[in-house]
Amino acid sequence: MTALRPPVPRLRSPGLLVAGAVLALLTGALAALPKVERSFIVEEGLRAEATLKLAVEAMRGTLTRAETPPALIAERPILAQLLRDPGNEGLAPFVNEQLRQTALALNVSDVYVMDLNGTTVAASSYRSERSFVDQNFAYRPYFTQALVGGDTRFHALGTTSGERGYFVAAPVIDRTEVVGVVAVKANVEEFEDSWTGGGSDLIVVDRNNVIFLSSRPDLRFRTLVPLSEETVAAIGAIRQYPLSRLVRLDSTTEPLSDDLTLIRFADEGARSEYVTSMRLIATAGWRASILTPTGPARTQARVVMAVLVLAILLAGLVAAVYLQRRARLVERLAAQAATQDLLERRVAERTADLDRAIDRLQSEVEERRATEAALRRTQAELVQAGKLAALGQMSAALSHEFNQPLAAVKSYAENAATFLDRGRADEARQNITLISTMADRMAAISKHLRNFARRPMEAVGPVRLAEVLDDALALMAARLAGTEVEVPDPGPDLWVTGGHVRLQQVLVNLLSNALDAMERQPDKRIRIGIETAGQEVRLSVRDSGTGLDPEVIPQIFDPFFSTKGPGKGLGLGLSISYNIVRDFGGVLGAANHPEGGAVFTLTLKRADAPRLAAE
Ligand code: ADP
Questions:
Q1: For position 461, what pLDDT does the model report?
Q2: 452-484: b or e for each residue (b if 16 or more CB lie within 10 Å)?
Q3: What are residue 254's phi and psi, to 5 degrees?
Q4: Which residues have a Cβ under 8 Å from the Cβ of 596 and sit 6 or more positions away?
Q5: pTM greater than 0.85
Q6: Pocket test for ligand 1, best of 485, 505, 519, 562 (most atoms within 8 A of CB)
Q7: What is the mean pLDDT of the chain?
Q8: Which of 164, 274, 435, 536 is most enclosed, with most CB atoms within 10 A?
């Protein structure tokens, strides 16, 4: 029969649950990828914006540096002097050198002076191959504007130097009359050269959306919007840029945040995407921007996503392994519980068996105790019965013992009367003395009988062996007549542990059995032996009878074992004797003597004489 127990709770298809969760998380992660990419790009853009801010500050500084000097230089009287007298050969070199020194001091690329026709009369670059001297710049707006007092700030690719510059000019006034123009050119290409954007590029766009400066050479002079014909014509007129390079850059933009824009260049393919931010340089009418490729930011975002995906997969794996382990654990626990159940049932069964066995044993012990008590009672009764039986056997002999002295007493009494009649007082006295002796003898016999018949209430203690032996022989004296009895004298100092009456009963029994065994033997001899060895005293009774049948020796001390016919023996004598000796702490043994006949040996404990031995 199997015990019903509630099922261990289990997750329903835990594998499916984990797979579902992993799938949902992966989908979420993939869906979030564009946002993550965007946030990485924004971060990148903001970083670039900070760089841009620094770059723009530097540019503003440079441009400002070029703005004031022209007016100051124009006030030098020597310039008006030269312009008034262009043919003065002593003046021109001096002015040229002065302008060169000024350009160096101002850290600008050129300082030069033009006459009213726009022809350069003196220039800081007078020594170089591309000297401005004699070059005409009448077409430049800064020249024309300077003459009329307008805004002279201008930027262009230098037609003489081939370098992009920022120009500012001022009129040279001599006595309220404009006699020429001073121009200062700052080289702006240094912004490109000194640009270190770390992967991103700087572009500066002018009012016409022409990329005037760029750290990427291929972008220089490209236009972000298509230029109108007028614009192109105007640019051509002032020779600002080489018209052949004004090619449109096909781009699309997409706002990313308040300050950031995504820009893609069509002719660079799908991978050309940049995040840009823009700052104005108002004095020059420029817009400076930084182009930061979005590729690295996207890659970073994807790496982060890949790590996230891996983490999700790993978590899924861990969860799956955990669930599998848990399922196994649950199974194992169930198996353990079943085994434990079985064990508990078996233990309970065994315990019940043991309880029953203990009950049985207890009742058996009770029975044994009751039986033992009954046995002891029976034994005590049997001891008495055995004594009575022995008494019965002895009574025949005793009646002979008493009859013989009685008959003697009768004849001595008659003899005494006759002697008295005849006045023979001495003989009469002799006879009366004999009568008294006979009476003493009978009194002694009667005393022994009384002792024997009494129930043994005596305690075990030291008894004098000689006395017990004497009493037993006296009791058996009648039956022992006609038997040769050898008795050693144990001496008055040999004491053994026992009870006087019971030890005497044992000896009477042994002597009586010996006499029975020798009943039909012509040669009747009993030898009593006494040996002391250490604390033991061995008393043996050997007869010259039939001996013991070896087969019956093991049962000889059993109660009711007898080979004597009915009415002759109860089979209790040896059994009772055996128990008596055991009570004394001794042993009774039986054997055959090698020369024939049986030997019964009583081994008793030697005792010290009692302190009041003289009772
Ligand atoms: P009982 O004398 O009434 O038969 P016992 O217990 O005294 O009972 O003796 C048991 C038996 O042991 C006797 O019947 C006898 O066969 C045997 N037995 C005892 N003493 C002697 C002996 N001295 N010689 C031979 N057999 C003996």
A1: 92
A2: beeebeeebebbbbbebbebbbbbbbbbbeebe
A3: -150, 125
A4: 544, 547
A5: no
A6: 562
A7: 85
A8: 274
